[in-house]
Design goal:
The protein has 45 helices and 7 strands. α6 links the parallel β3 and β4.
Amino acid sequence: MGTEQPIEDPVRRSGNHNTPLDTVLRHAAAARSGRARAVLVRGPAGIGRSHLLSTACQRLRSTGVTVRTVAAKPDAPTAARAVDALLAPAPVPATETHRTPGAHQGTHDDWRRRQISALQLLAEGPLALVIDDAQWSDETSLRCLDFILRRAAGLPFFLLLAQRTDVEGPGVSPLAELLAQDRCSLVEPGPLGESETALMTAHFLGGPVEGSFVRQCVEISGGNPLLLGRLLAALNARGVRPDTEGTHRLGTLHESVLTSLIPDFLAVWPPSVRHVATALALVGRAATDPLVALSGVDSRRVEGALDVLRRSEIVLPGSPAEMRNGLREAVLAPLSEPGLQELRARAARVLSDAGRPATEVAAQLALLERIDRPWMLAVLRDAVAEEPNQATVRATGRVLRDEAHPLTDTERKDVHVELAAATARDAAAPALWHLRQALAATDDLREQASIAVQYGRTALGTNRTPEAVQILGQVLDALPDPAHITGTTGTTGTTDIAGTMVGARGAADRELRITVEAALLITAVNDRSALPAARERAATLTPPSGHSPAERQLLAVLSAFTALDSGPADRAATLARRALRVEEPGSSDWTVPCSATVLTLADSIDEALEAFDRVLSPSPPHRTPWPSLFALAGRSLLLHGIGDVPGAARDARAALATTATAPPLAHIAFADVLLSQGETRQAGKVLDQLANAVPALDQRVWEWPHYLHAKGRVLRDLGDAEGALELWQRCGRSLAEIDVINPLVTTWWLSATTTLARLGRRSEAQDIAEQAHDRAQRWGTARALGLAKVAAANVAEGTARIDLLNEALDLLDASPARLQRAAAEYRLGRELLGRDDAPGARRHLRRAIELATRCGCSVLGARARTLLVTAGGRMPQLATAPLDSLTQSERRVAALAQRGASNKKIAETLFITPRTVEMHLTNVYRKLGVRGRAALPKGLTTTTGRTPARHQGDGMPAPSHR
């Protein structure tokens, strides 16, 4: 590296940091008086050596001293000598020519010729010879100048040299010998302090200068004048002033400023600091020992280097050392690509040998062009399993494609399976590709079965579902029937070892077969084309006991098929409960949300909420996100159904806000919320985005009917009744085509009968209402039966309509469907008003307003208020206490907790699990804004609604009536 570029130094120019310059000039003055002297100015790059020499030369010339200068270069040709640039060789006097026939460089005669040249100059006046960066000067030149200095006693001769201490060169040794002589003095400029820094800051940025700004500049530059000048120039370019605001801006901009200064830092740092900085830039964060191994610097100098880097704010405070992320690339930028590759491979080995986590080692391996060591692949596989990211996944994939290092079929299969598990978290398509490669790489039927199960789970919700069903079916047909494999018992009464092994294999095969069956059914249960065949297969299966994980998976999906077939609800819920009876960390991804969905349809709300909460509780790191997203969407639909619109909105937004692809149900749940809040056009946009994003939406068993129903509601609210009816009838046909008869999968029939009756098409409405009644009877829940009564009321005439609505309210009172109960209250109030029963109408409309307000359904509340005014009623003064937002279950649990009952006692009293108690209390604390049971308010007694005896449905509210 050449001579550092001098920068304008107002500090030294002003005489406020002039001790080194005064020292140099004092020795120069002594030399002028006839006492030949030498001064060596020594220090690291950027400390101001070159500027000091330049200023001293100017001062000397101004006093009549002849000054000759040269700057040594590290890459100067071998024949180029500093002394040749300073002194031309003079002829040797005739009296001396007999000594040698010629003068060669470095010989006594050569030095004598240079001395004569110096003496000729000295005859004219004082002479100063100056060499900058003398560490790079050739050795012969420095020894020649020493020769001249020793023979210039009594002459006005001054020798001024500058040495950079952080680099080596041929001049280092002769400079040390020269310094050992009495005639040579040492000057070492120190770093700038706060006062000197303030002067430079004022020069670059103007004043006044804030003290905190100066201190931060000193910390960053380390008092190095070169770095300080570059820093201030960079801040000036960004318009930063040295005031309080500038101090704050320096704090926010300093990383980008530091990045721009990295080349300057690299230029001035000693080699040990550069090596440590490079090592730390490679790994980002490391303790001392790995840095020692990677940098080749001993531990003492590593700690010293880290202190330098911390003072410059390139390394963050604390231990282990960590370099700012934004600076790492800048530190590594000067390295060549081959050199960087070599360092990364070395860093990976050092980190691996130090026992660092696989993810840290893999971060280095992922940047290598070649992964050509067995240990490298092993580390990448560990990282993919522990904490996968795109870089490690891509690097591992490169190994699979590297023909120079072929893998065995078993290794290839295992790597594909591992990569599938890693990529499935973000995208199904690459994961399915890896699984297809894994299937092709093995002939082992049991391995194929395991891979096929993973394929089915990954294909859920994609257009590869039919293919997954086909693969699972082929594997299932090929698996042996474990019922024919049994153990044998010896004649002595002890179990034969061989028989035990066969029996164990039979049990494992049975578990594997059930796992494949469950995977096939859960894959098919949401695909229209695969559903009929899967339903036939499910009908042949006997529900297992649920003692093993595979059996519980099968129970979950059988409960879903039972629910689609409309039940009855008790049977479907029983299967779902058996699937959930063991809470196991390693349970299937889809067992719990599937069972929770069935329990929701069966109005077992507390159990469903507990199941969803199980999925949403802290999960193992890097688990596939879709179960949690599906649980959020499912819980949003559940909460909307029981009248917690704000809670439903919160869950739907959470599912949509994730970086992963949100499930279609999340969009539909959010559209339902928007419709309840009067945001009809926004709901339509959400549904349109869903339809555009999921081309095969119409092939989904669950989401497609929900979508059609919600889209129809959008059209209805926008005034397009015919368009809405077309979608609802299409929804009904879609469900009929695949024999899904559960009336609560979606209540399109209720919306359709209401609109048809309003249009005077009662015959069509009656057919739909009768079919809904039959299916509701088959499913058997109070919600289904109550809504079927509402549909029947839509087509009834006279007092029969009022009777049916009263029956519907009785049923809905016994269900958790308080939002639908509010709608039924509104319908009955409207009907009574039409029959001139204003008092009765006002009573039901007030109830509708109370329920709609507490549910957060502004649309229904506004309609009921308008009708109440028409009926001659005053707007009710609704209680706005947070207690009104509690569901009946939450109120019961909170009341017991407020009286001092423990969670265990509450669970025993209410016949629920302790986890359900915790879930309800968490919701209560959130809704009431309290931190714990000690802050629960009084007045948490359980009040009743319309029919106290039937108010046992989970999630029912406890509204007050006037």
